[in-house]
Design a protein that fits this description.
36% of the residues lie in helices and 12% in strands. The chain contains 7 helices and 4 strands. Pfam families: AAA_5 (PF07728).
């Protein structure tokens, strides 16, 4: 039985034509995944697929034409917004206090302590912003991404 609400499948990384072409029938209106053995699996109406990619360099027109796109430029989220989000993650995420398990309290206290210790460095024009700006000026094997640099 199908659960209420939406279900999401998130594919993070390059859209490689070798494997994504097999998903084209899934992305069509018929929403069928055809396996190599010929078996077909239907995607429930409540399920959505998201491709989170850096660029469309490896995507084919057949795949692109089957997808809606949302593009976030480098300036969509400011560096202070990204740093604020990083601080929220260090503090233990965005879970309501009703979800907190009593046995997890020592861990939450540690997360709060760590967040308090690094918070001064995440303020505008402080160490982290300067480090990210400096890193952006260096040569990279992959295209520079502030979110990825911050996560590292």
């Amino acid at each position: 039985e199908e659960q209420a609400g939406r279900q999401w499948v998130v594919l993070d990384g390059d859209v490689d034509p070798e494997w994504v072409e097999n998903l084209n029938s899934l992305l069509d209106d018929n929403r069928l995944l055809t396996l190599p053995n010929g078996e077909r699996i239907s995607l429930p109406p409540s399920c959505r697929i998201i491709f989170e990619v850096e660029d469309l360099q490896h995507a084919t027109l057949a795949t692109i034409s089957r997808c809606g796109m949302v593009w976030f430029g480098d300036n969509t989220l400011s560096l202070p917004q990204l740093l604020d989000r990083a601080l929220v993650c260090v503090r233990g995420g965005l879970q309501p206090s009703a979800w907190v398990n009593v046995s997890a309290l020592p861990e939450l206290e540690l997360e709060s302590f760590c967040a308090s210790a690094i918070e001064p460095f995440l303020k505008p024009d402080e160490l982290m912003e300067q480090a990210i700006q400096h890193a952006a000026e260096l040569e990279h094997v992959m295209p520079f991404c502030r979110q990825r640099a911050l996560a590292a």
